[in-house]
């Protein structure tokens, strides 16, 4: 298999990207890598060219660039060229640590939507602290700020495929992030989405979940509209970071006694931090497009990049995209029926 | 001043409510309390009737009751009777630890909206860990699942009044919870709200805030639509609780060494937990109605109830409601102009 790598995206690109790719090359012997990037910067960093090919590009999409504009105008950027390679069948998957919006645009407009998927969405695996499994799929993380009920329904399908194919969870359960457990809770979008999902033949819906229970692991897939999904994810990250910071500060403030305690607890803290640092395990995936497209956080170092290659390999090995495609192709009536039920409800 | 107390609402009602009121009575010598509740249950709990009056009621709104229905049907419930006392001028403020939705309905339909406020909303003070002040106002916590831009604009006004009058923050700053820092981020509602707020003569708008920075204290008031505000608040609470739980578990798992460390760090953990437990400091306030209406969490114990009386006293002492009322009365043109600008934008 071949992975097209945007070598220029990310805070520590191209250095950490190239280092990560070399680790992955040594780890997975069936992956070939195409590095898209500025030759003068990337070339000196590669120590061993085995299964690594450099495709020189002349432009870079910056973190601050306006996504759609950047994708349209920077035609010789590392990201756009890597996306086009996937589109044209020269590579099987796309990886970037760069501008998320531009990667989304590249995924949707260049790699292309799977026919029948209305809105590709961003998904990630988060730690599930008390559930049956170690992780759950959370989506949409913010690809679509304005989600409709039919989109949320489709996220249930896409998320279930990711949970089964990549996290290895048999018949995954699905919940809808809402501001109450009862089915009449939420705004119109979530009320209607709940009704659609309740009768879903395509996945195993358990009902609503409130953001307070997110990390408890009461479902294998949690579906959210992109706006509140983004808010819940970021509030979770922000709170976890703030607490670790506060604990460190409290330890430093508490004199010899506290510092001794802190030293003794170091291994315990490390294990929690590791569990929380879900970014190390891989990236956010754009589900609903014609190939695996994965984004790691901008500050990803080599290890995270290498781990993400493992995640992409699993997606390819498990035929995630073709299985989604086949499912949607053979269930157009169900998806259509969902939309009609929806329209009937809205016009009632 | 007189506070009407729903003595029957909350997981530990009426015991902890009555205990809390007695603590508050001893602490604040200018407050009279009216306890609305089932006589046979409340009467035996009161140890000293000084400045405490029992108004017997025969019904109780339960946590699981459908809010509007319960408010309409249970006319002799402790909550409805307490709300009516405020409406009729027999009391200055309303307190309950009961059904939040029913309290919202009672506040809006019985106590009544301030003329000119389109949507009363739920606000709370959260800890600000790195800001200039210790706390900031976060609203709407979920009173309105479907918020319009003009509502978010009004929350900016209401929140600023709460920050100045109750938290004592001079010329408070305001931010809008959105899924990106740039002004073109978010769905239509948040894009338009940002434009309205940017030109706000009524408050000091600093721009968007992402949920990740919520606890950092970069603003004195954070305005959110009720749906994502609810999600962000609950994700914050859930993550904080989960982390404390995980730390405890990691300490227990880490042998003698870890347990010793945990024992040494106990005071440090206590101080963080106290800072995080914003519920102890008071309740969530329904802003935009004609009197202070405050809800503490259902599991509130006596201390939290007593502290909430202090919060209500500040609201009354500082003339929060009449100052909001006066401001809105004298700025109808501005509020109207905001709506017109909005309509122009929407129809453009």
Task: Furnish the topology, listing elements before pairings.
2 copies of one chain form a homodimer.
Chain A: E1 2-6, H1 15-27, E2 32-37, H2 39-42, E3 52-56, H3 67-73, H4 78-87, E4 93-96, H5 100-112, E5 121-127, E6 135-139, H6 149-165, E7 173-177, H7 188-198, E8 204-209, E9 221-223, H8 226-253, H9 255-276, E10 284-287, E11 293-295, H10 302-317, H11 320-330, H12 332-347
Parallel strand pairs in A: 1-2, 1-4, 2-3, 4-11, 6-9, 7-8, 7-9
Antiparallel strand pairs in A: 5-6, 5-10, 10-11
Keywords (chains A, B): Cytoplasm, Lipid biosynthesis, Lipid metabolism, Phospholipid biosynthesis, Phospholipid metabolism, Transferase
Main location (chains A, B): cytoplasm
GO molecular function (chains A, B): phosphate:acyl-[acyl carrier protein] acyltransferase activity
């Amino acid at each position: 298999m071949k992975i097209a790598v945007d070598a220029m995206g990310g805070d520590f690109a191209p250095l950490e990207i190239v280092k990560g790719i070399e680790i992955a090359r040594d780890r997975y012997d069936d992956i070939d890598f195409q590095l898209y990037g500025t030759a003068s910067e990337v070339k000196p960093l590669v120590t061993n060219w085995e299964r690594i090919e450099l495709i020189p590009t002349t432009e870079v999409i910056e973190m601050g660039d306006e996504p759609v504009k950047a994708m349209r105008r920077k035609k010789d950027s590392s990201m756009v060229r890597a996306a086009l390679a996937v589109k044209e069948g020269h590579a099987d998957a796309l990886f970037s640590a760069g501008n998320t919006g531009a990667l989304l645009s590249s995924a949707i407009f260049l790699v292309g939507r799977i026919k029948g998927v209305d809105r590709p969405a961003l998904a990630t695996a988060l730690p599930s602290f008390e559930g049956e499994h170690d992780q759950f799929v959370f989506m949409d993380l913010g690809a679509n700020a304005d989600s409709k009920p039919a989109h949320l329904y489709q996220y249930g399908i896409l998320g279930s495929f990711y949970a089964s194919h990549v996290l290895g969870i048999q018949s995954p359960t699905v919940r809808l992030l809402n501001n109450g457990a009862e089915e009449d809770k939420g705004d119109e979008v979530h009320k209607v989405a709940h009704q659609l999902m309740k009768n879903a033949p395509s996945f195993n819906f358990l009902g609503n979940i409130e953001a307070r229970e997110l990390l408890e692991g009461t479902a294998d897939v949690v579906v959210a509209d992109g706006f509140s999904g983004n808010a819940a994810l970021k509030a979770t990250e922000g709170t976890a970071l703030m607490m670790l910071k506060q604990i460190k500060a409290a330890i430093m403030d508490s004199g010899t006694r506290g510092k001794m305690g802190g030293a003794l607890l170091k291994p315990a803290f490390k294990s929690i931090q590791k569990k929380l640092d879900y970014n190390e395990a891989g990236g956010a995936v754009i589900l609903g497009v014609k190939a695996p497209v994965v984004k790691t956080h901008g500050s990803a170092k080599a290890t995270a990049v290498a781990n993400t290659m493992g995640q992409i390999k699993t997606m390819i090995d498990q035929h995630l995209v073709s299985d989604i495609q086949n499912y949607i192709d053979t269930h157009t009536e169900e998806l259509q029926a969902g939309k009609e039920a929806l329209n009937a409800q809205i016009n009632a």
